[in-house]
Write a structure and sequence with these properties.
Layout (H helix, E strand, L loop, with lengths): L4 E3 L15 H11 L3 E4 L8 H7 L2 E3 L7 E3 L14 E4 L11 H9 L3 E4 L15 H22 L18 H18 L9 E5 L3 H10 L4 E3 L5 H7 L7 E6 L1 H4 E3 L8 H6 L4 E3 L10 E4 L13 H8 L8 E4 L21 E5 L4 E4 L6 E4 L9 H12 L3 H6 L13 H5 L1 E4 L2 E2 L6 H7 L2
Parallel strand pairs: 1-2, 1-4, 2-3, 4-5, 5-6, 7-9, 7-12, 8-9, 12-13, 13-16
Antiparallel strand pairs: 6-17, 10-11, 14-15, 14-16, 17-18
Helix pairs in contact: 1-2, 4-6
């Protein structure tokens, strides 16, 4: 007998409009594999209730009849149901304090948990993600923030015409708007007050690639990190070209031991033996876009101390940080929290070390929205579902009453199985330590 799959209504954020599966994907699964679906009623989801009904799903107020429940963001503790299996971004694998009570509740109820973030191939590469769409939306927002910030200090630029990502009807409309800005810069050049303009990207994965995709709509020339300082000082790049540079690990990290060459594999194994050297580049960057992975084992790249030192000399080139990765108190230390879509930007004052919401004040404008893909809800949902759809049949056919060793699921999904019937699976037993600390 097939497990009924429930698609939940997203309730963590008011402007969260994504869905893990679209009506198109549900229709395909119903038609080809006769999978049963229940979709929770939602008046804000980008896809209408009626569209799911036409796809062959039942639409209801709750998901009590579903054995497997799929969503996107975290689920409130009181909504978990006994013995059910859940798929969502749980944000527990790093021992995140704020979600340990959620994990505890799921264990009490005998739930199973599959975290999309941990669904990987044999090489550990993530298979189900929104990263590219975070990069697309994040770069749109970063350029919009730059235009707004300059306007607040009395500088009118072509970037001032841009809007926040969610205000465009589609990604194509946003692309066209940015392309028009690019054409104006190519024809007339940048204002002298912001030339030369340097956009720096931290990281080179899916998030960064999405951001660079948007940046490519502007007239840019990529310069190696090693040549950034000399290129700016020479002013050989014409005023109708934006300088782009991409930071990889070896550009940002060095060993504590003088003279040791950077070894990326050793860095991943022993990050405690390394430190960031990123602060030396701060004086040469106008817009910093962070799309790099970070967790607490790794050094921060932009610290509050470094920003205070940098801003104390009075020559502040850095105007905007687009923190797409959005790790609170993380790689970009001044990102104190993820911002909401309707309040996406704050000004960080490196001297007082305090944030002020909006675009006005002394300091650096930081754009740090933690649900950026939701600003492109239709496109990001489609892209996500294109991958997730391939795992729905084996999940519907799985017998969750069997011992873990007999559970018939694809190996990629098994790698993402954090809880099975209320117990931590072997790869995630380390979370017991975090749960004990936060009990």
């Amino acid at each position: 007998m097939l497990n009924t799959i429930g698609i939940r209504h997203e309730d963590k954020y008011l402007l969260e409009r994504r869905a893990p599966l679209t009506p198109h994907h549900v229709a395909r699964l119903v038609s080809e594999h006769h999978l049963p679906f229940i979709v929770q009623v939602s008046e804000k989801r980008i896809f209408s209730n009626e569209a799911y009904i036409k796809a062959g799903a039942i639409v209801d107020q709750d998901l009590k009849a579903a054995k497997i429940i799929i969503g996107i963001k975290e689920i409130p503790n009181y909504l978990f149901e006994k013995d059910k299996a859940y798929l969502f971004f749980s944000h527990v694998s790093k021992g995140q304090v704020h979600n340990m009570s959620m994990l505890t509740r799921m264990m009490e109820l005998g739930c199973s948990l599959i975290d999309y973030e941990k669904v990987t191939d044999d090489q550990g590469k993530r298979l189900i993600f929104f990263g590219r769409y975070a990069g697309l939306a994040g770069m749109i927002n970063t350029l919009w923030t730059y235009g707004r910030r300059l306007k607040e200090v009395g500088l009118t630029t072509p970037f001032a015409r841009l809007r926040q990502a969610h205000e465009y009807a589609s990604i194509e409309e946003a692309r066209n708007a940015i392309s028009e800005v690019g054409k104006e810069i190519a024809q007339h050049g940048l204002p002298e007050s912001i030339y030369p303009l340097v956009i720096a990207f931290m990281g080179y994965g899916n998030v960064s690639q999405g951001a660079q995709e948007i940046c490519s709509l502007l007239p840019t020339e990529e310069v190696p990190v090693s040549a950034l300082k000399s290129t700016i000082e020479s002013k050989l790049i014409p005023s109708n070209i934006i300088i782009k540079t991409v930071f990889r690990e070896e550009d940002m990290i060095e060993s504590f031991m003088p003279g040791d060459e950077f070894d990326i594999q050793d860095y991943y194994r022993h990050p405690e033996n390394y430190r960031s050297k990123f602060d030396q580049y701060l004086p040469f960057i106008n817009i910093l876009v962070n799309g790099a992975y970070w967790d607490a084992r790794y050094p921060r790249h932009v610290t509050k101390d470094a920003l205070e030192t940098y801003c104390s000399n009075g020559q502040q080139r850095l105007k905007v940080i687009g923190d797409i990765s959005c790790d609170p108190d993380g790689s970009i230390e001044c990102t104190h929290a993820g911002m909401a879509i309707d309040r996406p930007v704050f000004i960080y004052n490196p001297v007082s070390r305090k944030p002020t919401m909006g675009f006005v004040g002394k300091g650096i404008a930081v754009m740090a929205v933690d649900i950026l893909p939701s600003e492109l809800p239709r496109e990001s949902s489609n892209g996500f579902a294109d991958i997730l759809v391939n795992y729905m049949r084996p999940l519907a056919e799985a017998d969750f009453s069997l011992p873990l060793s007999q559970l018939n699921l694809p190996s990629a999904i098994r790698r993402g199985l954090i809880l099975y019937n209320g117990k931590l699976t072997p790869d995630f037993e380390y979370l017991k330590e975090y749960m004990a600390i936060n009990a």
